[in-house]
Amino acid sequence: MKKIFQDVYPFTTEYITGYFKEIDFKDKKVLTVGSSSDQAFNAILLGAGKVVVYDINENTARFGKLKRDIITQVPRKKLYSRVNSIIDVPLSGDLFSEKDLRFMNPYMSSDKNYNKLQELLRTNPDSIEYKTGDITRLNLDEDDKYDVILLSNALQYLDLFIDKDKDPYKELKRIFDELKIHLSEEGFLQLLYIYSIGKNNFTKSTVMGSTQSIVNVVNALLPNILSMSHFTNKSINQEDAIIYYKR
User: Fold this and answer.
1) Which residue in 193, 203, 175 sits closest to 243, CA to CA?
2) Per CATH, which fold does 16-246 belong to?
3) Which helix (H) or strand (E) holds 120?
4) What is the pLDDT of residues 202-241, one digit of tens each?
5) How far is 231 from 240, CA to CA, in rounded Å?
6) pLDDT tens digits for 77-123?
7) With contact defined as beta carbons under 8 Å apart, do 52 and 30 qualify?
């Protein structure tokens, strides 16, 4: 496993509010990446029964547990400063302000949501489990199934994960097929998160990275049918999108 991505983002870099509404989390078992753990916290808020955070970042588990403890102990207005004061793990600088993050992150958006998450984490502190591993090479039992799989923007870095002599789209197909093994019937797989989606994402050009070309990704995964949902983060005036697959 490559020693990369070892700093932790204190909070999400995605507009989670924009795409979590596409997903039914109620009583679902979720597999996700994301070193900030915000995908996990929001999934729990929205009713997930169990979340497994599977991330290549070896600091994710320690940070996630520290952040969980902070959430359960401090009011919403103190969360941002307390999390950014953590010194036990290396933190990346936040890309967004506290105001933007409250718009992007459901559990931060109101005292009602925050207090609900606090109670859920206090009642069931083991609802989130952490495993260190490479999402492109899963080390799971074959019968380990998930109702929701969230890859965040991990596959944006596919070209860095694979050997230079390998075809990225063959590797994407291998990864997709492996993920499908662990996707339950009627499951939801969020494959890509695309920031600032634009016309360049609808060409065959790979200048921005292999998985930034939606045309190439769709062709590589045929006959599987992928869907796209796009949404506007009004706080920063940015159009983002997810590419996903549903059984």
Assistant:
1) 193
2) Rossmann fold (3.40.50)
3) helix 111-123
4) 999 888 899 999 999 999 999 999 999 999 988 889 999 9
5) 6
6) 999 999 999 999 999 887 899 999 999 999 999 999 999 999 999 99
7) yes
